[in-house]
Design brief:
heterodimer; A: 315 residues; alpha/beta; two-stranded antiparallel ribbon; 9 strands; elongated; B: 459 residues; six-stranded mixed sheet; two-stranded antiparallel sheet; 22 helices; 58% helix
């Protein structure tokens, strides 16, 4: 890998992801390449639906690795993200082993001696067998490495970020009773964020920061082409052009790539040959998710279709 | 090249991208992976490793383009074309024919390296020489535009200008044509160096200049700010808001934990026969600030109120609930206007509704008590911003007393200096008796401290 020229390596990443149906821009490919080379997580930011989560899935599929996903939400804590003790199992085992324990401790004369003997068992009940690994620990324990997706990190609490720092920088976690667990093979870590709140500097510092915005027209056409093969070229151009016009409006929620793909599927299902005002009006609710947005866009539809068609001729 | 990267990191700090030593190490590692051969990949790499938000990416991208664009020698300079014109352009040979005959072929051997370089028109060598000379003259230390001259001459000295001058003097006597050529080349060189220094100034001095300007702006009286500075002031206020947000938006969890919650503990451990494996703790309830701001928007105080409202309303993460009211002779609620519109439009609308009248604190307070007294709760901090100049009308301090009784704290921010309080029609002393805190608030810095204190009381 090292002797390979970086530009060819980056192209290899691009085509590898493309084979999984993910059309990556040069920047995304560079980020993926670098994260592998210098073993750093990627923090992906961008509006909803531009393919942040898809990127992780595509990387996992391309490298043939397992993907472990940790969906963040408010109140997510160590016990759900990292590891948990199997309390019930511990309790059950103490009950089962009660007699055995009595036997072992039977020889002791004083309470003190019994306690000493008890110490000799060491931490039988706090050993690997009683740990329930949660996504983060699972990711470290994969022998062949994996892709760890920490989704929507901005939804979690600020405290949770601090918990992640050790994993992100050293690929290890510390469990007080067991010691430090290091990764067998460092996982590829992808964090995604919708910028709902500002993440801490400590977290950002440990990651490569990748911002995925709305793609350019050409790129988006290629994405639609790869995701919805049944669509004709004219229609594809028209609809992508139309969506780019819509994005220039001041809306609550701009349509993103996932909406483009959905819309393309809908248009194929309806067997539309090209865009016209009626069909756009009928299917606008696929693109726009707020009533106010639909009302704002409705009067512009005809103009936008005309514009998209014109750019089609010249572009 | 490593040296160049270090200078780039300094330039990056100049445009406001925070580059810590650890980040520069990471960037170095990343760059060593991708190499310098492909500029777009290098650019992407640096943007990925150094920038941490979209704004930073934009700033850093511009910085990168500026940094790695070397000032080229101008094509239209006569001697730039002179080297090639003998072989290529026929129309130019007429104008430079005399010199190319005189200078025929290689420059004489006895000249110094700089003269050789200038005469042979080796652009890459010249650019490299300028780069190393600006390193020697530590161009990256340039701070102010007035230093341009001294840095230019330092760079030229480092390149061996002295020797070139001596040689020029000699040549004028022995070979005037060659001397003429050399002189023209020297002028072109001066220009290149000047461009290099200007570029250096743009790269390295921005941070310093901005700090200086912000420092001045922070301590300038808000009420008398010039129109052209208003936009800068708004940016500064946003910066302050961001700082306050960072400081106060993440309360520590540890402090919130209170006593053992027996009921919840028992319920949670019902499965184990009430043996408390899992404990549940009560949380100390902590209020986030609830603020009611009452702003005077009459002529003299309007500008300060503007900035104050902008600051308060950009603290969403920290402050739970802000209701703002503006008054000069009567009071209206302006929260919604401020939330929905851009700061400029919002202020214009507020001003058109109540602004610029002569202030009447008495009737404004009556309005507030009549319509909005119910917004006050025991958790509310009431902030009044005004100069307390009542135009000799009834101040109605009794209403202020009732406001103070209903709320957690009553803070009065006065843009006037303490010395002016109580003189003329200022009713400040009378109002002050009912306020928890009275502060002067004339500059951005005082504004920041005042708001910071208010938010801190809730932590």
């Amino acid at each position: 890998m090292a002797e390979q020229k970086p530009s060819t390596a980056i192209e290899a990443v691009e085509s590898g992801l493309a084979a999984q149906g993910y059309i990556a821009s040069r920047q995304i490919a560079t980020a993926v390449f670098l994260s592998q080379q210098i073993e750093k997580p990627i923090l992906v930011e961008g509006p909803a639906g531009v393919g942040k989560t898809e990127l992780a899935k595509a990387i996992a599929a391309w490298r043939g690795k397992k993907m472990i996903r940790l969906q963040c939400y408010e109140g997510l804590d160590e016990a759900k993200a990292l590891y948990e003790w199997k309390y019930a199992k511990q309790l059950l085992y103490t009950q089962i082993l009660k007699d055995k324990l009595g036997e072992v401790l039977g020889g002791a004369q004083t309470l003190h001696a019994a306690l000493d003997q008890l110490h000799d068992f060491g931490d039988v009940f706090f050993s690997k067998e009683f740990v329930e690994p949660r996504p983060l620990l699972q990711a470290l324990e994969q022998p062949g490495g994996c892709v760890l997706l920490i989704d929507e990190i901005d939804k979690s609490d600020a405290e949770f970020e601090s918990l992640l720092l050790e994993i992100l920088s050293d690929f290890q976690v510390t469990i007080p009773e067991l010691g430090t667990v290091s990764a067998i093979t460092p996982p590829t870590v992808i964090l995604t964020s919708n910028s709902e709140r500002d993440l801490g500097d400590a977290l950002k510092r440990r990651c490569l920061h990748l911002h995925i915005g709305f793609p350019e027209q050409r790129l988006e056409e290629r994405i639609v082409e790869s995701r919805v093969p049944g669509i004709s070229q004219t229609l594809r151009r028209q609809m992508v052009g139309f969506i780019h016009e819509i994005r220039s409006l001041d809306l609550k929620k701009l349509p993103s790539v996932s909406e483009t793909i959905d819309w393309a599927r809908v248009l194929v299902l309806l067997q539309a040959a090209e865009l016209d005002t009626d069909i756009v009006k009928d299917t606008l609710n696929v693109l726009l998710k707020y009533e106010a947005d639909i009302e704002a866009a409705a009067p512009q539809i005809t103009t936008f279709i005309a514009k998209a068609a014109r750019s089609n001729v010249f572009g | 090249m490593r040296e160049n990267l270090h200078r780039f990191f300094r330039a990056a700090r100049g445009v406001g991208v925070h580059v810590s030593p650890a980040e520069s190490i990471d960037a170095m590692r990343a760059v060593s992976q991708v190499g310098f051969s492909n500029r777009t990949i290098l650019r992407d790499t640096l943007l990925l490793t150094l920038a941490k938000s979209q704004d930073e990416k934009l700033a850093l991208g511009d910085c990168f383009d500026l940094f790695f664009s070397q000032p080229e020698p101008r094509e239209n300079e006569p001697e730039a074309g002179r080297n090639e014109d003998a072989s290529q352009s026929a129309d130019q040979s007429s104008q430079s024919g005399s010199t190319s005959e005189a200078g025929e072929g290689q420059p004489p051997e006895e000249l110094g390296p700089l003269a050789q370089m200038l005469l042979s028109q080796d652009r890459n060598a010249l650019a490299a020489a300028i780069a190393s000379a600006s390193g020697a003259a530590s161009l990256s230390d340039i701070r102010y535009s007035t230093q341009r001259g001294i840095f230019s001459s330092r760079i030229l000295d480092a390149m061996g200008l002295q020797r070139l001058r001596d040689e020029l003097d000699e040549l004028t006597a022995t070979n005037p044509a060659l001397a003429e050529r050399l002189r023209a080349a020297l002028d072109a060189l001066r220009e290149m160096v000047r461009d290099t220094v200007s570029q250096g100034l743009a790269l390295y001095a921005r941070e310093e200049a901005e700090n200086l300007r912000n420092e001045i702006l922070r301590n300038a009286p808000l009420a008398r700010i010039e129109r052209r500075q208003v936009a800068e002031m708004r940016a500064l206020i946003r910066q302050i808001a961001r700082r306050l947000r960072e400081r106060y938006s993440k309360p520590r969890k540890r402090q919130r934990r209170g006593h053992l919650d027996v009921r919840r503990t028992l319920r949670r451990n019902a499965a184990w026969g009430g043996v408390p494996f899992l404990t549940a703790w009560k949380r100390k309830h902590r209020d986030r600030p609830k603020i009611v701001a009452l702003c005077d928007v009459s002529g003299s105080v309007a500008q300060v109120s503007d900035f104050f409202l902008l600051l308060i309303h950009s603290l969403h993460e920290v402050v739970d609930d802000v209701r703002s009211f503006a008054f000069s002779s009567h009071t209206i609620e302006v929260s919604e206007i401020l939330e929905k519109k851009s700061p400029e439009e919002a202020m214009a609308e507020i001003m058109s509704k109540v602004g610029f009248g002569s202030s009447d604190y008495g009737s404004s307070l009556v309005d507030f008590e009549k319509d909005f007294m119910s917004t006050l709760t025991p958790q509310t901090t009431v902030i009044v911003l005004g100069d307390a100049r009542t135009n000799n009308l009834d101040p109605r301090a009794d209403i202020l007393r009732r406001i103070s009784e209903r709320s957690k704290r009553l803070v009065w921010l006065n843009p006037e200096g303490r010395l002016a309080w109580g003189f003329g029609d200022s009713e400040m002393p009378r109002y002050a008796t009912f306020c928890s805190v009275v502060r002067q608030c004339a500059t951005a810095q005082q504004l920041e401290r005042a708001v910071s204190d208010i938010v801190a009381t809730y932590q």
